[in-house]
Specification:
Three copies of one chain form a homotrimer. Helix content of chain A is about 40%, strand content about 15%. Chain A is built from twelve helices and nine strands. In chain A, the strands form two sheets. Chain A has a five-stranded parallel beta sheet, with helices on one face. Chain A has a four-stranded parallel beta sheet with strand order 2-1-3-4, with helices on both faces. In chain A, about 50% of the residues are buried. At the A-B interface, strand 2 and helix 4 of A face helix 3 and helix 12 of B.
Chain lengths: ~300, ~300, ~300
């Protein structure tokens, strides 16, 4: 059976290190990789739309000299004719060399992978996993800090429903001496099971607070996420808290000069556009890193060495 | 005017033999063909969605080193602005070197071909023609049996509305010594005009039965199709008959050891997933053959010899 | 900041001359350009569908050996998640080397360009600008007449709402000795501001008439556009006038033997299909020119010299 990437923990710490090394070599020597996937095909099967993720995968494969086919929403797929997702994926695995699949249902990529003749990359399944986002975050931290250990990282915003936060907390818990600061309204705290599984079990210390401003001076990395109005139990809380979780140049005055600001995007208004020009803003670099780490992952799954 | 493939009978028996030979050479020596269509463009104009067929065409062109553009449903097309299909196809024929076109209306690809400056391949027009499916079926039979004559083939399921059955019966009637067994409920028998045209006129013997189990031991090839509930006149008949047309490992116990099971896919439940592991199941190989025969057809229409 | 093409007047007369020269060299020596954009990516961001324009851009990039990614309607885009157009374009500019963007809102491509890290080509913004259509028209005139000055051009149909007419009138006003004949019903005359800005200010003479037949014998070029029923103030006027603006072989009997008939397409019925065979019909050649001038423009914006 081919190798699949459904959850970021399908990869060992060593494998993640290898992917980051490859991505950084791609960034340094893009021409070396520009024909690495010549005559290979990536299929992007997006059972729900996600332009950002789909285009990141597609540009990654094209930058490797490969080609791309697929669909961008379920309406255009055979699913409409009553075919199982397993059969759809099996069919496409007869055409392409690797598949990036997004599905609104948790677990669908794992189930589909049982029917595929080629490697499957989970490009997001409901509120569950999105391993290439986590790899993107890890590459960005590595490029910004030069390492994946020994720093204080703050997660700010909706820590309850934000799957990218859960995955990144889990992934970082495998590295030494990472200090976690969890900044959110009470309603949107990191779920108990994530804290148990990723932090407490391993004896990793963490801190919870409602105040971004209070902890700002101590952060090496600030991972922002969106706070959606509809997540709040009552309007009052929302109005009281919403501004505390909007990052502005003013709030950044108290931050370290070498802070790195990450955000998985898309943003609505939780980072002011004025922050984009701050040299500490790393989220647009993060977008580019998403392409490079996907290039590295495709090479790994196709077992192509350059 | 360019050469078009609207109906499988637009091709002579000799031409079909040539396509099968090319496809088998592609399978044996894929690298030989990987740049054959470099700098050529295929347009896929799907006025109704069909992911399976579209991706098969696209992966075929990409595997030949060509590139692909087009649309996957009419909503995104100029048709919405009141343009005729002829003008849309004429326009695209100014951009691309060959067109694969699917349309819900019977005859639309034939009509459109009159306005095209490049070859048109009919990728399905309503319940009418779908010549590349029939070519796929013929290549699969040839690869499984080593020949296109001298065997007993059973068609099972909905033989009334299944256009792939009509086309394959017609196509096979041009070969020697093919014995046809038509297995269906009374309501879903092969239409009289197909029997007249393809079989009786040529004096080809055939047998009609309601029982798959009865004829199973004699079949060299079994071509399964879907039986849709809504095709039955009454619910009683549906309930009585539906299980007889579901292929299971149990029913296959009575079959020849070298039987080949085909199905145009997608399936709903007419072949149990447990059958997929049976070495006689040829329908997933059939999916791959669909790509290879389309590669051969594109080469032929672009007049490219490798 | 990268160079963008939002309005055709973003280009000088000299630059337009250069693009036309490149396009004509591409037509003469296509093989010379077939790998010019190897390893480069064009993103087509169509926030509203326009198959014709999108496929023209895509086939242009593919014919240069580049590759293509993007989306064909807003529904599949991140816009649905509340992201600003600026952020969407910024994101895609992290993946691709050049962007062709279409948007229903006037000015959207200009605004978006402020956030892009790569050149933006406006592929149409509402009823506003569509510079590559105007470049297509200019290339077509140049290929038909061998020059861009010293001729009489008639614009016929809906001159009020047809943005392609406004742009072409403005663009041609920069050349010497072009005589303009504006043929339309009173309700659909060229807007006063276009006449002021493009013609009167420069002292360029023009003539307005309701009768195509009257002026036909004097025209060197006839630029047809669609007359939409819903543009008329009353049904009576529509019925009285509609036939005068339908081009037929009969009406063409009075025309010069070297007339060139242009139309931006799609047409509904304003040019009879019988005219397609007339050697003076240049609108299908115009479709092909649209691909060639876009190839030239992509090369210019990517600063690639062949």
């Amino acid at each position: 059976m081919p190798r699949n990437i459904i959850d970021v923990t399908d990869l060992t710490v060593e494998e993640i290190g290898g992917l980051i090394a490859t991505a950084e070599d791609i960034i340094a020597n893009p021409a070396k990789y520009q024909d690495a996937c010549a005559h290979r095909q990536l299929a992007t099967l997006f059972f729900e739309p996600s332009t950002r993720t789909r285009l990141s995968f597609e540009s990654a494969m094209l930058a490797l000299g490969g080609s791309v086919l697929g669909f961008s929403e379920a309406a255009s797929s055979s699913a409409a004719k009553g075919e199982t997702v397993g059969d759809t994926v099996h069919t496409v695995s007869c055409y392409a060399d690797v598949i990036a699949m997004r599905h609104p249902k948790e677990g669908a990529p794992y189930a589909a992978a049982q029917f595929s003749e080629v490697p499957i990359i989970n490009a997001g399944d409901g509120g569950h996993n999105h391993p290439t986002q986590t790899l993107t975050d890890l590459l960005t931290i590595h490029r910004e800090k030069g390492r994946l250990d020994g720093f204080t990282i703050g997660f700010c915003g909706d820590l309850k429903f934000g799957r990218t936060v859960h995955s990144l907390v889990s992934a970082l818990s495998r590295y030494e001496n990472v200090r976690f600061v969890l900044i959110s309204p009470a309603e949107l705290k990191l779920p108990r099971y994530v804290k148990e599984e990723a932090l407490k079990k391993r004896g990793i210390p963490y801190e919870q607070t409602e105040s971004l401003e209070e902890v700002m001076p101590r952060l090496d990395i600030l991972y922002m996420t969106r706070v959606q109005r509809e997540r709040f139990f009552n309007e009052e809380d929302y109005l009281r808290l919403k501004d505390s979780y909007i990052l502005t140049p003013e709030k950044l005055e108290a931050a370290k000069p070498d802070l790195s600001i990450l955000h998985p995007l898309p943003r609505v208004n939780e980072i002011s556009v004025a922050v984009d020009k701050d040299p500490r803003a790393a989220y647009w670099k993060q977008v580019k890193n998403g392409k490079f780490i996907r290039m590295a992952l495709i090479l790994k799954l196709l077992d192509i060495r350059v």
